[in-house]
Amino acid sequence: MEDRVTLNRAEQRRLLVLNHLEACALVNAEAAELLGISIRQVRRLRAAYRERGAAALAHGNRGRRPAHALEPAVALRVVELATSTYAGFNHQHLTEMLAEHEGIHLSRPSVHRILTQAGVASARTRRPAQHRRRRERMPREGMLLQIDGSRHDWLEGRGPYLTLIGAVDDATGIVPWACFRDQEDAHGYFQLLAEVVRRRGVPLALYSDQHSIFFVTKRRC
């Protein structure tokens, strides 16, 4: 009998996304967006999952320093540059400058974690967190569809920046469809909704951000 694998919440989420990926309900780029990792990491995770099953998702270095952990010297260099050469840069801009000019390739969350631990705040001022109740997810699929666009270097330097326009079902977290566009535009959202309706049916409601695409601006006479 196989040993039972215990997964934490983050690992359970990875398992759910990988199952959708294996069922062809997602593509690598969509899985990477949902998990907050790179497409290359998704490919490695998927290969390990196929070979060892759910056990591949359980972190084998709990309580120990991972072999791939960031070298202290790199973290110190990031802090040094953030407080000198790139002082005043927000974390996103700093991440781009580190990769482009310093040869330090890190994800924005990694840069954020390094600087937060060192007490270096992002240059962008944030509003104080509001204490409010978290909204419960919808009870059934199709009741609420969240739509949004994400501009990113999806081609990992092999082409232009693209915008991934996609939808996520609020109840299940499933991505029914998504597409790449040169920019976030109305045509992309119309295409998205047409494919969602064709594949899944008409959603009961849509949720979007405050992008001007979704509002009609009255002209002054």
Percent helix, as a range, is 25-40%
SSE string: HHHHHHEEEHE
Shape: globular
Quickly give the structural class: alpha+beta
Largest sheet, in brief, is: 4 strands, mixed
Overall average pLDDT? 82
The number of E-state strands comes to 4
Question: In whole angstroms, how far apart are the ends?
Answer: 77 Å
Characterise the protein shown here.
It is a single chain. The protein contains seven helices and four strands, in the order ααααααβββαβ. It has 221 residues and is of the alpha+beta class. The longest helix has 15 residues, at 186-200. It is globular and about 55 Å long.
Write a concise keyword list for the protein shown above.
alpha+beta; 3 domains; 7 helices; 10% strand
Give the helix/strand layout.
Layout: H1 9-22, H2 28-35, H3 39-52, H4 72-82, H5 91-101, H6 108-117, E1 145-152, E2 162-169, E3 178-181, H7 186-200, E4 206-207
Parallel strand pairs: 1-4
Antiparallel strand pairs: 1-2, 2-3
Task: Give me a quick take on this structure.
This protein is α+β, with helices and mostly antiparallel strands. It contains seven helices and four strands.
